Input
Amino acid sequence: MPAEWEPHAATWLAWPHYKLDWPGKFEPIPWVYAEIIRYLSRVERVELIVKDAAAEKVARKILQRAHALNENVRFHRWPTDRVWTRDSGCAFVWSCGADTPVRQEPLAAIKWRFNAWAKYPNWKRDEKTGSLMARAAGVAEIPAVFGRKRVVLEGGSIDVNGRGSLITTQECLLSRVQQRNPGMKKEDYEKSFADYLGVSNVIWIGSGIVGDDTHGHVDDITRFVSPDTVVTCVEADPASPNYEVLRDNMRCLRGATTEDGKPLATIDLPMPAPVYFEKRRLPASYANFYIANCTVLVPVFNDPNDRVALDIIADIFPDREVVGIYCGDLIWGFGAIHCMTQQQPAVSPDSSR
Output
């Protein structure tokens, strides 16, 4: 599986329609999407999933008003339950393994099973999204299986460096809460990551942040930003429930190595002040950024640390435009920019990789 900063052919998104993801606060959400699509469509194709013809009409009108409708936006009318394409979509991979059944093609699509984070009943339409994406992209679909069962996995639960290392959390994959794959152990996941993503080195950290509806997705806390470096969230307030959790994660990372045995470098990324709505703490985090061609979109929350986080990420990606997208409303759906996007790589690796 290539790293997110590798060249993209496209970004996949699903237009918002399920109002119960943002109860009482749905009205601004399509406009947040329009802003994200406006930036993405400048640098790559946007494959936009709409649930039907009526939804496409609404999306076109909003995108046009936001100056975000152009030839780089391509519509797909597919029924969906929700919009979190990172988790429901397929994982595009390079077909470079000696034993892959599709090695004649540059790309393949790993199709994990999706069951709405082992929590919600509305998932059967979204479970088909990865297969539809693979078909539209013209690549072979490879179902991920362990033993005789399909593997349940969300894209937000893993992050890769494109060289054979993957990072994930024990809370998400090994806990009995929201248990995705009963009976699967750490070594079973590592075998699946090796078989389907070409991963030889799995870095396990502890837990996710408070308010995370997914029970520990790594894309809210720690992200690869180069083959040997991660940014990882730190909490400055000792009274915060995230303080010790993130310190424990940092200790794991400082003892970790890359696939070639070199120490993993870490860069601190601050947390915003807690974001609440209707007395519920939300999983606001700057780590939920998305790396696109020539650009990085970063969630911001009208917080003093917004500028600190943007400067850190701009220093990491000096050749990309770093853009803050206000996500104070979007995060009421328990997800932000990385959760709603899924990258489609542009090309296969060359023979030297």
Summary: The longest strand covers residues 8-14. The chain has one domain: 8-345. Residues 8-345 form a domain with the L-arginine/glycine Amidinotransferase; Chain A fold (CATH 3.75.10.10).
